[in-house]
Amino acid sequence: MKFDRKQLLLYAVTDQSFGKSQPLEEQVKEALEAGVTFLQLREKELDEESFLNEAIKIKALTDYYHVPFVINDDVDIAKKCDADGVHVGQSDMEIVKAREVLGSDKIIGVSVQTVEQAKLAQSQGADYLGVGAVFATSTKQDAKSVSYATLKQICESVSIPVVAIGGIFNDNVEKLEGTKISGIAVVSAIFGSDDIRQATKNLLKKAKDIIDV
């Protein structure tokens, strides 16, 4: 799936650790209806069969709403559920290997924190970059911070789109204005909210205010 960088505007990453009684697919449906433009399924605790079953359900939803859908880290699950792609970190499967497994038409996103990592990921065939943590985040305790200046330098050093992630909420989105990012990626700002629909609408508006689309 070839995607438009505009689809990265509001990038939601799932997280079931908030302990909601509502099934994840219902949470995702609310977020998609409210305007999420890109979705990543991240499951650190599920066994492979449960992860795949969840992925298949979410894939049906994202297909219906015409939103790109990627799997976090697990290239095999991405292939089995025919996701639109995968998002890998610096310590996960190499981009080239992921491309071999998934094929040329799938989306591959890569987490980076430096200009050097960004340039390398682009040269290896990444379709977009996730850069963070741009703010302190509770969903990834070991995440190192990336400064505003470094985020901007990364955006200026590559031609592929860049998404900022890490501790982004409705009240600090404006601080990313001027970095030339193509989107914001959020976890708890949507899935940790008591009102997923309203949180999504608020974030989408803020993202549109600071990002040229």
Description:
The protein is an alpha/beta fold. It has one domain: TIM Barrel (Alpha-Beta Barrel). The chain has helices at 24-34, 48-65, 75-80, 95-102, 115-123, 148-157, 188-191, 196-210; strands spanning 10-13, 38-41, 69-72, 85-88, 107-112, 128-131, 162-165, 183-186. The longest helix has 18 residues, at 48-65. It starts with 9 loop residues before the first strand and ends with a helix.
Tell me the fraction of residues in β-strands, as a range.
15-25%
Give the total of beta strands.
8
Shape: globular
In sequence order, what are the helices and strands, one letter per element? EHEHEHEHEHEHEEHH
The CATH homologous superfamily is called Aldolase class I
Physical arrangement of strands within the biggest beta sheet: 1-2-3-4-5-6-7-8
Level-1 CATH class name: Alpha Beta
Return the CATH topology. TIM Barrel
Q: In this structure, how is the largest beta sheet organized?
A: 8 strands, parallel, barrel
For the record, the CATH architecture stands as Alpha-Beta Barrel
Q: What structural category do the secondary elements indicate?
A: alpha/beta
Q: What integer is the average pLDDT? A: 95
**Which stretches are low in confidence, meaning pLDDT under 50 for 5 or more residues running?**
none
- Which value, in Å, is the CA radius of gyration? 16 Å
**Quaternary organisation of the protein chains:** single chain
The domain tally reads 1
- Residues in helices, as a percent range: 25-40%
Tally of DSSP helical segments = 8
How far the N terminus sits from the C terminus, by CA atoms, comes to 20 Å
EC number: 2.5.1.3
Pfam family, one: TMP-TENI
Organism: Candidatus Galacturonatibacter soehngenii
Function: Condenses 4-methyl-5-(beta-hydroxyethyl)thiazole monophosphate (THZ-P) and 2-methyl-4-amino-5-hydroxymethyl pyrimidine pyrophosphate (HMP-PP) to form thiamine monophosphate (TMP).
